[in-house]
Amino acid sequence: MKKYKNCTLDEYLDVLSKRTPVPGGGSAAAMTAAMAVALVSMVANYSKSRDSNIRSQKKIGAILKQSAQIRRRLLELVDLDAQAYLGVVKTRQSPTKTKKKALRKAAEVPLEVCRLCYRAIQLTPYLVEKGNPRLISDIEVAAELLLAAFHSARVNVGANQ
After folding, report:
1. Dmax over Cα atoms in the chain, in whole Å?
2. For a Cys staple, 36 with which of 123, 133, 134, 145, CB 3.0–4.6 Å?
């Protein structure tokens, strides 16, 4: 299977639009969340040198580190979701027990996307308060994308149970 996280945006959107089982909604939710977290990182990077307070610098540095970790994991989940769903597709003619096991495994990925969205949104209040005020709209967009990704991933958790 092709690594979707290594595709250009144009390539990813092209393959997402095709009549193939993967990538699908779970992968798109993970990608959306990764874009949101990238915005959080961008605002943190712009805000880093804005305040000379050492405590503030450390906090923003911690936000940068956490957001980078979350974003990397979300990009991995773009592909892991596709792999998990292919496992479901392969069990279509299998006994019910085998199908249910594949569905439970497929639900793990969007559940992790939900958890990561929750962790990422927790990074935003400090940036709203202490970050670059010109970039508040970017934090708002990040929050809206995280909310959309969370709800989208939650739909997939339900669909896979």
Report:
1. 63
2. 145
135: nearest Cα among 126, 152, 11, 56: 126
100-116 per-position pLDDT tens digit: 999 999 999 999 999 99
Is 17 exposed, middle or buried, given 0-12, 13-18 or 19+ CB atoms closer than 10 A? exposed
Q: Which domains does the chain show, CATH number per domain?
A: 4-159 (1.20.120.680)
pLDDT for 117-126, tens place per residue? 999 999 999 9
**If you search the block for the tokens 């092209």, which residue do you land on?**
14
Structure tokens belonging to residue 123: 């990074």
Q: Whose CA is closest to 22, among 81, 105, 103?
A: 81
CA 22 from centre of chain: 17
Residue 104, pLDDT score? 92
Whether 34 and 80 have beta carbons less than 8 Å apart is answered as no
Burial of 130 (0-12, 13-18, 19+ CB in 10 A): middle
Task: In whole angstroms, give the CA distance from residue 36 to residue 142.
Answer: 4
